[in-house]
Amino acid sequence: MTKSKKQAKTKKHNLKKLALAVGVVAIIAGSVPVIKRVVNPGELVTEIIDGDSFKIKNKQTIRLSSLDAPALQYCMGKEAKVALEKKILNKKVILRDVKTDVFRRIMALVYVDGILVNEYLIKNGLAVTTREGADETENIKSANDFARENLLGIYSPKCYQKDPPDPKCPIKGNIDDRTKKKEYLVPSCRHYSKAIIEKNMGETWFCSEKEAKSAGFSPSSDCFRE
To answer: d(Cα 91, Cα 85) in Å, to the nearest integer?
Structure first.
């Protein structure tokens, strides 16, 4: 075998090994684009979708992991989006702890200028933690505690309410975090005084039971009638 043929065979063998290695990594991570984002030193943010999602230059959508920002129509939803725009729009961000969730969304801890954006939003009361921050779990938990203790954003009286702003509309419409079941409580319900209205989650007040039912809420099993 000539020297040139040996070199060609060696090169082909090395390329095959490289392709196999890339394939293994892709299987572990879920997709090739995810691998790219792990090793890329920076991704340019081109669009902000809402308070916890954005797009990068290749049009891939990235969702900030370990948190939930309010939907745009809910309390602090627009504020969260504006804050994220100011922080990362048209800037390069570093994505760490990248993974694909059960809905096949790309999730990541996002850093810009040395700041963990996930922590920043939570600490300012613009998102609630889901406590899945991997290496940053403790920092994220502390950020959430800080916002709660200082009544910031979603924990402020604007969004987090125990007493009705309007005494004529005292019915509490609650939504279960896990099941998303909608129930309402009237003042005669046993635990009415303990129930909190979290407007950032879509919970709200009603002036009558008819109004609550029309909005898709059912009487709470905790309630009773005298």
So the answer is: 10
Task: Identify which of 92, 146, 150 has the alpha carbon closest to the alpha carbon of residue 117.
Answer: 92
Query: In this structure, what DSSP letter does residue 129 have?
Result: E
Q: By the 8 A CB rule, do 140 and 64 touch?
A: no
Q: How is residue 92 written in tokens? A: 């390069």
Question: To 10 degrees, the CA torsion angle through 64, 70, 71, 74?
Answer: -170
| Domain covering 32-155, topology | OB fold (Dihydrolipoamide Acetyltransferase, E2P) (2.40.50)
Domain borders along the chain are 32-155, 162-219
Distances (CA, A) of 176 to 161, 181, 195, 205, 224: 16, 5, 12, 15, 19
- Segment 104-130, tens digit of pLDDT: 789 999 999 889 999 999 999 999 998
